[in-house]
Write a structure and sequence with these properties.
The complex is a heterodimer of chains A (about 700) and B (about 220). Helices cover about 25% and strands about 15% of the residues of chain A. Chain A is an alpha/beta fold and about 700 residues long. Among the domains of chain B are: about 60 residues, Orthogonal Bundle (Arc Repressor Mutant, subunit A); about 90 residues, 3-Layer(aba) Sandwich (Glutaredoxin). Classes of the chains: A alpha/beta (about 700), B alpha/beta (about 220).
C-alpha cells in the first residue's frame, strides 16, 4: 500500500494504482485523451503529464504506478508548460473546425485546449489531410480531426471483440484505418463514438442535427432488450435526437448496444397518432369518445370470460397492471404475456429470472450457454462474459444449441436434448471444468423455450444446475435470458393465464370457435396471428401501426418508451423507473391513462386516478416492487422432474439483431444496418488506401 | 520518415509460402512461447518479401495473419510501420541511399545526382527496365564509412560518384561487386590508415612470461 502525496495531500492507495487514478480519488483532475479507465493503457497522448519529485522529466501519470513516498505535483508551472507543449503539438494537425464539428460543445480536446491551449498558433506549415474511412451506416468519420489516441482501436479489440481497426503507417502520416472498409461487425460499435475524445468518429444519424447545449436530457431506461440498460435520451422540442448510455456499474457500465443507441428514428415513423375504428375493410380516424363507446358497446354484449388480453414486448408495468386489473374486473382469466409462444414455469420466479447479477458474471469460472445467443439477445451480458473470458484466458465456456459467432472462444457441446441430458456423463473438458468450478453460471435462452417441450427443457437445465452445484448457498448461477423488456414485469404482476385461462396461441385459436370473442392487444405485435378469426373483436393499443394494428377493429394510440413514465423490470428482476422525455404524438396518450379512461366507459372504473395511485396499488399487491434498482432475490425452489424433450436442436430467438421489435423494425438506420450486415448493399467495399 | 501507405493496385490474387519457407516458419514460431506466436510476424514478413520479388503483397499479409492466427490489420500495422518492408514492387536492385547528416556531409547529395544522371531515377522511382529502385533512407548505421548505400542486403561504403557509377554498372551487367568499403578500408579504420593499433595484436592469454623489464629487475637483485 504505497503512501504518497499529490499536490501536498497525502493518500494511501492500493498497490498498482496509477498516479492518475490516485489523483482522481482525491478529486484532482488530470487531463487525458488516450487513457480510458475501462481500456488498456498505451500512454501515447502525453496529456496527463505530472511532475514527480526526483524524476528528471515529467511522467505520464496514467501509466506510472504510485510508489511509496512519491511527491507528485499536478499543477506546477513545469507541468502546465509540459501540457501546453503537448496541446500545441496535438493542435498542429487538428483542424480548426469546431464550428462545424459535431463534437463541438462536448469535445475533450476543445475543453482542454481552453485550459492548456495557446491563443494563437506558431505553426505556419501545411496541415496534414487524412482520407475519410467508411465504417458503416452508424459511424461517420472525419479523420483529419483524429489525434491518434487509439481508444477506438483498443475498444473494438478489447471489448468489442472485432479487430478491424488499426494504426497504419508511422510518424506524421500515421492514421487509424480498417483493413477492409465496411461496417464494423459489432453490436457495440456505437460506443466508438463515445470513446472518441474528438470529432473524428461521430454518429451518422445524429450528425449535423443539434448542439449538445440545445438538448433536453432525460435519464431513462432502454427497452430494446431485457437488460434494462440505463440511457439518456436527448431531445429537442418533441423530437428524440439521440440516445446515449448512462453509467450504471451493475448493468451496462458505460456502454450500450447499437440497437439501443440508434433505433430511435423508428419512433418517428408509422406512428399511431389518433384512434382508428374499422369501417369495413378500412380503418377510419375517430375520436377517443367514439372509440371507447364502440369498445364499451361491443364488450357489453360479451361475457367477461370471452375476452382475452395479450401484452407485448415493450409495455411498462403500469399498463400491464392496469390491464390486469381491468381483466379481473371483467372477470376474464385469459391473460398472457408470453406472446412469442415460450413455454416455461411462469409461477416460479427463481426459474425465469437472471439470478446471477449481471455484474457478477465477471466472477464466473465456468459458463454454459443453452439455446442462447447473448451477443444479440443481450449485448451487455455478452460483454460481461467477454470480460470474464479476457481476464481468464482459459475460462471454460460451453455452448448447447446453435453454433454461433460469439466474440470469445467456446467449446461446442451439441445441438439439443441429447447433449443436455448427456451432460452429466460427458467427458468433455468443459464438463470437467464445470464440475470443479466455484462460481459456475448457466444461461438458458428464453428463445429456446418457444416450443411444446419448453418447460421440460427449463426443468432439465434446472436439474443440471442442481446436480452440478451451480446453485449454492451464496451463489445462484441459474439464469434465464429473456429478450422482451416487458417480460419479467408482466410475469411478476402475474400476467399469465389464470385458472382456466388460455395462453396466447390458444386464445387466437379459440377465436374461431367463439370461445374468445374479443381480444385486447397491448402492443402485442410479435404474435402469430395465423388462425385469428375475423369474427373476433380486436382492440389494439400501441404506438406503431405494425402486425397487431392490421388485425385491429379499434386502435387506441399509446405512447412509446420515451414518451411515458413507467417501471420496467429487467432480467434480474430489477425494477427501474423510466422517465418521459417527449410527448406522445397527436392524440396518443400514456397507456395506463387510456385503460383508466376505458374502464369508465365499460362501467368498471379502476381504483386509481394518477401515477402515484397506480404505483401504490402495484406495490401493495407486489411488495417486492418496493425496492427500486435492486435485483430480486428469490430462494431457489427447484422446478421438478423434466418431462420428455423433443429431438430438435435448440434455436435462439433472434435472427437479425437490428430488427427485433416495432421500433427497430421501423427504424431506417436499423434497416440500413440489416442490409449492410447481410451483404445486400450497394456500398462499395474497398480495402484501405 | 513515414511514407503514407497506399495500396498498390495490381495485387496478386493469392500468396502461398514455398515448402522450404514453411519449414523455416515452423522453426521461427517455435522460438516463441506457446500463445505468443504473433511475435513471429516480423520474420514472416521478411520471408514473404524475400520470396515475393522483394515486396509484400496484401495476400501475403493475409496468409501470415492466417498462419499466426491474428487479425490481418495487426500484420498491416507492422508492415506499414517499418520502411524496410516494401509494399509495392521494387527493382531487382533496391538502392537505399543514406542521406542522414554524416553521409550528407560526405557527399550523399552527389550520389543522388549520380542516380539521376546514370539511371534517371529519383527518390521512390524505378528504372523502366525494372532493374533499379532508389529510396532515400535515414541513417543505416555505417557513418564511419560515409557516404554509403544499401543495395538489397549488402552495404556499399566509401562511395564517390565515380565508384557508385561503376558499382551500378557492374550490378547492371551481372558482375560481382565486393561489398563493404569500396576504397579497401578495413573495418572502420581512419581514412589515412590506422592511427593506433598499428600492429597485429598478440593473441591474448597464451604468453604467460613476464615482460622483459620485470625480468631485468629481478636479475638486478
Amino acid at each position: 500500500m504505497p503512501k504518497l502525496t499529490i499536490d501536498g495531500i497525502e493518500i494511501t492507495v492500493e498497490q498498482g494504482t496509477s498516479i492518475l487514478q490516485a489523483a482522481e480519488q482525491l478529486g484532482i483532475e488530470i487531463p487525458r485523451f488516450c487513457y480510458h479507465d475501462r481500456l488498456s493503457v498505451p500512454a501515447n497522448c502525453r496529456m496527463c503529464l505530472v511532475e514527480v519529485e526526483g524524476a528528471p522529466k515529467p511522467v505520464a501519470s496514467c501509466a506510472q504506478p504510485c510508489g511509496n513516498d512519491m511527491k507528485v505535483l499536478t499543477k506546477s508551472p513545469k507541468v502546465v508548460k509540459a501540457r501546453q507543449g503537448v496541446m500545441e503539438f496535438l493542435l498542429i494537425n487538428h483542424p480548426l473546425d469546431c464550428p462545424i464539428c459535431d463534437q463541438g460543445g462536448e469535445c475533450d480536446l476543445q475543453d482542454q485546449s481552453v485550459a492548456y491551449g495557446y491563443d494563437r498558433s506558431r505553426y505556419a506549415e501545411n496541415k496534414r489531410a487524412v482520407k475519410e474511412k467508411y465504417l458503416g451506416p452508424l459511424i461517420d468519420t472525419h479523420m483529419n480531426r483524429c489525434i491518434q489516441c487509439t481508444r477506438c482501436i483498443r475498444f473494438s479489440e478489447e471489448l468489442g471483440g472485432v479487430e478491424s481497426l488499426g494504426l497504419i503507417g508511422r510518424g506524421e502520416v500515421v492514421e487509424i484505418a480498417p483493413y477492409v472498409e465496411k461496417m464494423i461487425e459489432s453490436e457495440l460499435s456505437g460506443n466508438l463514438i463515445d470513446v472518441c475524445p474528438v470529432g473524428a468518429l461521430v454518429s451518422r444519424p445524429y450528425e449535423f442535427k443539434a448542439r449538445p447545449w440545445e438538448l433536453r436530457k432525460t435519464e431513462t431506461i432502454d427497452v430494446m432488450d431485457a437488460v434494462g440498460s440505463n440511457i439518456r435520451v436527448d431531445s429537442r422540442g418533441n423530437e428524440v435526437l439521440r440516445v446515449l448510455p448512462r453509467l450504471n456499474e451493475e448493468i451496462n457500465e458505460e456502454w450500450i448496444g447499437d440497437k439501443t443507441r440508434f433505433a430511435y428514428d423508428g419512433l418517428k415513423v408509422q406512428r399511431l397518432d389518433r384512434p382508428y375504428i374499422r369501417d369495413g375493410k378500412k380503418l377510419r380516424e375517430a375520436t377517443w369518445e367514439e372509440a371507447f363507446a364502440l369498445i364499451a358497446s361491443k364488450l357489453e354484449k360479451i361475457d367477461g370470460k370471452q375476452i382475452g388480453a395479450l401484452v407485448g414486448d415493450l409495455a411498462a408495468m403500469e399498463e400491464i397492471k392496469a390491464l390486469k386489473d381491468l381483466m379481473n374486473a371483467w372477470g376474464s382469466p385469459h391473460t398472457d404475456c408470453l406472446i412469442d409462444g415460450a413455454v416455461f414455469d411462469a409461477e416460479n420466479a427463481g426459474g425465469y429470472l437472471f439470478n446471477t447479477n449481471i455484474a457478477d458474471i465477471e466472477k464466473a469460472d465456468a459458463i454454459l450457454l443453452v439455446g442462447t445467443n447473448p451477443r444479440w439477445e443481450a449485448p451487455m451480458i455478452n460483454l460481461r462474459i467477454r470480460k470474464a473470458a479476457l481476464a481468464n484466458r482459459d475460462l471454460p465456456i460451453g455452448v448447447i444449441g446453435e453454433q454461433l459467432d460469439l466474440n470469445y472462444k467456446y467449446e461446442y457441446l451439441g445441438a439439443g436434448a441429447d447433449t443436455l441430458t448427456g451432460l452429466r456423463k460427458s467427458k468433455s473438458a468443459f464438463v470437467k471444468a464445470l464440475k470443479k468450478a466455484k462460481n459456475p453460471v448457466v444461461i438458458l435462452g428464453a428463445g429456446a423455450l418457444r416450443r411444446k417441450d419448453g418447460k421440460a427443457i427449463q426443468q432439465a437445465v434446472a436439474q443440471i444446475a442442481e446436480e452440478f452445484k451451480i446453485i449454492k448457498k451464496d451463489w445462484n448461477g441459474f439464469n434465464m435470458l429473456h429478450t422482451a423488456a416487458s417480460r419479467i414485469g408482466a410475469l411478476t404482476l402475474g400476467f399469465v393465464p389464470g385458472r382456466g385461462g388460455y395462453n396466447a396461441a390458444k386464445m387466437i385459436e379459440e377465436t374461431k370457435s367463439g370461445k374468445i370473442k374479443a381480444l385486447y392487444l397491448m402492443g402485442a405485435d410479435d404474435v402469430n396471428f395465423k388462425g385469428l378469426s375475423k369474427k373476433a373483436f380486436v382492440i389494439y393499443q400501441g404506438h406503431h401501426g405494425d402486425h397487431g394494428a392490421i388485425h385491429a377493429d379499434v386502435i387506441l394510440p399509446g405512447a412509446a418508451y420515451t414518451e411515458k413514465a413507467g417501471v420496467y423490470m429487467n432480467v434480474e428482476g430489477r425494477a427501474q423507473i423510466a422517465r418521459q422525455a417527449v410527448f406522445p404524438p397527436g392524440e396518443a396518450r400514456e397507456d395506463w391513462k387510456i385503460l383508466r379512461a376505458l374502464s369508465d366507459f365499460t362501467g368498471s372504473p379502476l381504483p386509481y386516478d394518477n401515477l402515484q395511485g397506480l404505483r401504490a396499488a402495484m406495490v401493495t399487491d407486489h411488495p417486492e416492487l418496493q425496492d427500486i434498482n435492486v435485483p430480486m432475490k428469490v430462494k431457489w425452489k427447484g422446478l421438478g422432474v423434466p418431462g420428455k424433450i423433443l429431438k430438435a436442436g435448440f434455436e435462439t430467438s433472434i435472427k437479425n439483431y437490428y430488427q427485433t421489435n416495432v421500433i427497430s423494425r421501423h427504424s431506417v438506420t436499423m434497416a440500413e444496418c440489416t442490409a449492410e450486415a447481410s451483404g445486400k448493399t450497394n456500398k462499395k467495399v474497398a480495402a484501405n488506401g | 520518415m513515414g511514407v503514407k501507405y497506399k495500396k498498390y493496385p495490381n495485387q496478386p490474387k493469392s500468396f502461398t509460402f514455398t515448402k522450404e519457407n514453411m519449414k523455416k516458419i515452423e522453426a521461427i514460431i517455435k522460438k516463441y512461447p506457446i500463445g505468443f506466436q504473433q511475435s513471429a510476424v516480423m520474420p514472416l514478413l521478411d520471408l514473404a518479401q524475400r520470396q515475393h520479388d522483394n515486396w509484400i503483397p496484401e495476400p501475403a499479409m493475409e496468409e501470415i495473419a492466417r498462419i499466426l492466427d491474428i487479425p490481418v490489420i495487426r500484420v498491416v500495422e507492422v508492415a506499414t510501420f517499418y520502411t524496410m518492408y516494401n509494399l509495392a514492387p521494387v527493382g531487382k536492385y533496391h538502392i537505399q541511399l543514406c542521406s542522414t547528416t554524416p553521409c550528407m556531409l560526405c557527399g550523399a547529395g552527389d550520389l543522388l545526382k549520380t542516380c539521376k544522371s546514370k539511371l534517371g531515377i529519383g527518390h521512390g522511382e524505378t528504372t523502366k527496365d525494372g532493374k533499379f529502385t532508389l529510396t532515400e533512407v535515414e541513417c543505416l548505421g555505417a557513418c564511419v564509412n560515409a557516404p554509403m548505400a544499401q543495395i538489397n542486403d549488402d552495404y556499399y561504403e566509401d562511395l564517390t560518384p565515380e565508384i557508385f557509377e561503376t558499382v551500378i554498372e557492374s550490378l547492371s551487367s551481372g558482375k560481382d561487386v565486393p561489398v563493404g568499403s569500396q576504397t579497401g578500408r578495413k573495418g572502420s579504420m581512419a581514412q589515412l590508415g590506422p592511427t593506433s593499433l598499428e600492429k597485429e595484436a598478440k593473441a591474448a592469454g597464451i604468453d604467460m612470461a613476464p615482460p622483459p623489464e620485470l625480468k631485468k629487475k629481478k636479475g638486478g637483485k
